[in-house]
Amino acid sequence: MGSNGKMIRKKDLSIWQKSYVPEILKGLRQTIAEMFKPKFTYNYPEERFKPDSSFRGRPVLVKENEVERCVACGLCSRVCPALAIEVQASETELAKERYPVKFEINMVRCIFCGFCEEVCPEEAIVMSKEYELVFSSQEEAVFGKDKLLKSTEELKDRLEFLRQNR
Amino acid sequence: MPELMESLLLISLAKFVAFLSVVLVAAIVLVYAERRVSAFIQNRVGPNRVGPWGLIQPIADVAKLLLKEDIVPKNAYKPVHDLAPIISIAVSLSTFAIVPFGNTIELFGTQVKLMIADVNVGILYLLSITSLGVYGITLAGWSSNNKYSLLGGLRSSAQMISYELSMGLSIIGVVMVAGTLRLDQIVLHQTQYLGGWLPAWNIFLQPVAFITFVVAAFAETNRLPFDLPEAEPELVGGYHTEYTGMKFGLFFLAEYANMFTAGAVIVTLFLGGWHLPFAENLGLSAFTLSILQVLTFCVKLVLVLLFFIVVRWTIPRFRYDQLMNIGWKVMLPLTLANVLVTGFVLLLLQ
pLDDT value at position B102? Predict the structure, then answer.
């Protein structure tokens, strides 16, 4: 505010800056320098993004000694905010006593939040690194045990990550 | 005599066909270059799938445009709606007729001037034809019967009128220095040397005129910082919102052909045209020298066009009031002062 109560506009630009030309040249230098920097994008089908172990891809069931770790407690199905998991339990002769007869994740519903992995007491369901999910029908998007089971070797990175960060 | 007439006609026709194809191909290549350069500036890769390095991409784009349905809005005025893109493309192609690609070249025993039309008032032709270009855009905006298109068309006419003035006045400086309106003579004037080492290109003789002319050229070609007639975020495409298929393609092509022509005119008027400094002292044969000069012209043109593209991806669009402010309060006085100073200096040097 000036002494007479009128607004005085602050002159924040010098004449040199107001003449545009030097500032434009500065901008041009920036963009031209940008041209020779490495690219952020991938040439997708040939080059693929390799996720870190912290990546939350599609959830899978851990298979240890040819059997799933899952004891069909149903916590994952309970916690799932998108209601994507369906578990049906049954009994078994193994030490764990219970196993899932049916374990289905509807990949159209899944939102990759990772709650199932967090809540699992057996570390039996974990998020994998797979992110390429394509279906041609609703039925095809429902993954059963055949597609969900992955051996511990395949999931080594994620299991290691969970051990360190949980 | 009839044989001479026939050969002259043939040469003219050959030149015409060659130049037309050059301009059209150049416009297509420019689209590709723009997409690639913009991708690089934004740390992307850009189109690289169709053909080697994606070079065939623009052809695929044109094929797509040709196959698209041509939709005319129900309330549009059809005759004008159809005419507008034709005006645009015709104007942008005919401007190129007077640009000298090179000095004379000897072909089959005749001296051929490397420009289509040797007009003795070349610059006036240039100014008058480029100002016709606004009709295409304004008519397109008006006949579409769409408020955004109309706004785009109106903006375009206001912008063109404001900037044509400073464009013409900045050329006057060049004309005063060269003392002629013929474009080939202006280039010849630039082949001299200042103090024996600096080529007398008009960029050195008329730096202010160079800057104002380049700015006005950006405004005339509707390129960003001055692309208010299209202004995607505010006008959803402006004057060509209601155009589809190849009619839209013609506007698109006209824009790039305009850019090509503007670049060629900048090179001709300010950057010494086909002049390659000190090449005439190398003792080359006349024919080699001619070819070299044409190549020089092309290299200069490519550099100017790259400049056009990089500027587009550097500077944000001006606001409408800023556009008018710059046009009338900055460019016009600046060009007038330039004419005045040039006149005084020329008077003192006499």
Answer: 66
